Every structure is written in C-alpha cells, then in structure tokens.
Amino acid sequence: MTTLHYIHDPLCGWCYGAEPLARAAAEVANLELVLHAGGLWPEPTRLPEDTRRYIQQADARIAQMSGQDFGSAYLSGLLLDPELVLDSRPTIAAILAAEAIDESKTLAMLQAIQHAHYVEGKHVVRTEVLCDIAADIGLSRDEFAQRLAQTDPSEHMHVARQLMQRVGAGGFPTFVLEREGTYHAVPHNQFAGNSDGFKQWLETAAAQ
Fold first, then answer.
1. The domain 26-155 is classified under which CATH number: 3.40.50.300, 3.40.30.10, 3.40.50.1370, 3.30.70.1230?
2. pTM across the whole model
C-alpha cells in the first residue's frame, strides 16, 4: 500500500485551495490518505490591518488558481471582524477528536471547518462552533465535545513538522508520497484547478 501524507492547516488559505486535490486523493484506489496538521497559527493571533490586506490579496489569487469559493460572509465579514482570532490548535484538536470517534470522518471534518471559515465566515476557533460542525457531519455532539476537551494537538503538530523537515517542505499544503520506506514531496502546485489530473497522477504513482 502506498501512503499519501497530506500536511495542512485548517486555517491556511492555500490548503483550502487544495481541498479538491485532497478530495481527489481520497478516491484513489490502493492509496492511503493520512492527514497531518502542522499549525500555521500555533498561538491565538489577532491580525493587524496590513496582514488582513495581505490575506485578502492572497485569497483572491487562491480563488483564481483553484476555483475555490471564498464567501462574502468571510471576505466582507469575518476577515474584517475585529474579534477575529486565528488559532490552529482548537481546529486541529477538532479534527483529531473526529478521527478518534470515526476515522472515516477525518477529511470531512477538515473540509467542514474550511467551509465554515472561508465560505460561511464562522469563528471556527470557538468550541460551540466546532461542536456544531461535528454534528453537521454526523457525529454525536456530546461525544465530540467530550473528546475535544480531552485532545491536545501538540504532539501531532510536532510530528507533522518533522515530516515537513524530512522532505524539505517550506509550508502548507504539502503532499508527501511514502512507498517502501521512502518519502517524496508531490508536485501538487502544477495541478491547481485540475483535481482530475492530480488523481490520475496519483493513480499512476500508486500503481508503480
């Protein structure tokens, strides 16, 4: 079995742009998709005005390249909200909590968080919002809330960073193909907006 490691952050715009690639990878036969979250925002961060403008410009580029939708509730609401706090840790903990309850929900939880943030403009660092998202993808709200409260993502983030260093990756997202103990970074950038091409590339790689 060939493994594709997907190193991401739930609050990374470029990772939201790569959502169709991750979804396509999950459909490849004989390829195990494993998610790793490295922590783009390891501490709670409030954004100064110049950083908000930079993110707006980057998001416009991501939308153009990937075809992903950035909703007005995010662009004109959340991103300009003075109460906005970016903190990767609770969102990563939420994905790990979902995975612990039902491994088949791991990618779904990541994508639901991304959509809640980038399309619906919700404060996904808040526990009640994460519990709502978990319920929306079919998990027990009470079970998820209990699991989330017990989850510390620190070690998971550390391991993800180690894997990035192993392949010389400089940022998120990074896709790493593991086969017979060897690790190779996948040139996913050339497949921006072309998830079918990415899927075909991975199918060929998995068959080798």
1. 3.40.30.10
2. 0.96
